[in-house]
C-alpha cells in the first residue's frame, strides 16, 4: 500500500497530515483540551473523550479508524487548530500549518479516497488472520478483494467521492479544489513535437491518479499472492485436508 500511495499524491499528502495532526495532539495538552471541550459541547449526554492519534507507521491496513475519526470530527478539528494557531502555546506554529492543509478541499478528497482503499484492505487483512484460516481461503479472500477493487474503478464512484468532497468543502467553507495550472515549457527545450495534455476539470485531473492507485494495489496483490511457493503450499494443504492429490506436489 505504501508503494501504491505514491501514485496518488493527494491521498499520500492527506494521510501525512493526519499523522502530523495525531503527533500534535500527542504533544500538546492545550490542543487536546480545546478539542475535548468542542466535541463535548456538540454532543448531548455522557460521552467518551475523543482523541486523535497518529497513524501506525508500518501497518497500513489498520488506519481506517484514525482516518474515519478525522472525517467524522472535521469541524471541531478545524476549530481547534484555529484557536490554537492564535495562541502562544508550543503547538501554534504546527497548528497554523495544519490548519492551512485541512482547509483545502484536496485534503478531504485525499481522505475520501484513502478510506475507499483502506477499508477494503483492512477487511482483507482480517480475513487472512486466525488459526483456522487456510491457504485456499486466503487466496479466495484476495480474489474477492481484487474484484472489489475492480468495482471501485469507475467514473461514477469517483464522481460521488468528488460530490461528497464538494459538499464538505461548502459546508466548512474550505478552499475549493482547482485544476492546477499547466507550466509552460521553456522555449529552449520545447521542440513543439507533441501537445501536452491539460485537464479541463477537477475530475479529469484526479481521476487518472485514482485509477492508477487502484491498479497499483491490484497488481501488488497479484505479485504477492500469485506465486509458485504459495500455490505449492495450497496443494500441500489440500493433501493434508483431503488425503488426495499427492501427485500434484511430487
UniProtKB/TrEMBL annotation:
It comes from the Eukaryota. PANTHER family: 52 KDA REPRESSOR OF THE INHIBITOR OF THE PROTEIN KINASE-LIKE PROTEIN-RELATED, HAT C-TERMINAL DIMERISATION DOMAIN-CONTAINING PROTEIN. This is Uncharacterized protein.
